[in-house]
TrEMBL record:
This is DNA-packaging protein. InterPro entries: Phage_gp6-like_head-tail, Phage_HK97_gp6-like. CDD domains: gp6 (cd08054).
Length: 100
């Protein structure tokens, strides 16, 4: 189960209708996976999922949605907006590894 519902993501992005549901669902899954990888554990392990983590996911979904056509023009962008990493930093388990 996703930490953020499709309906909430669509409301956040002010998307009406169902034409973009599959795409937004894909972005939701990707954003949740990215956030989990960034903090070092699955988002599902945060039970309940804190509101600020949900906001980070929403920001990342919005980012993916807004820049989806930039690849068509050959432009590159960062993988996540600064606000996302700032929110998630307090949930990171490990900042550096000792080579193990």
């Amino acid at each position: 189960m996703s930490a953020v519902s499709l309906d909430l993501a669509k409301a956040h992005m002010k998307v009406d209708g169902t034409a973009e549901d599959e795409l937004i669902s894909l972005y939701l899954e990707a954003a949740q996976t990215w956030c989990g990888n960034y903090i070092g554990k699955p988002i599902a392990d945060l039970d309940p999922v804190p509101a600020d983590v949900k906001i980070a996911i929403l920001k990342l979904v919005s980012f993916y949605y807004e820049v989806r056509s930039l690849a068509t023009y050959g432009l590159s962008v960062d993988m996540a907006p600064q606000g996302v990493t700032s929110i998630l930093d307090s949930y990171r388990e490990k900042w550096f590894t000792d080579g193990e």
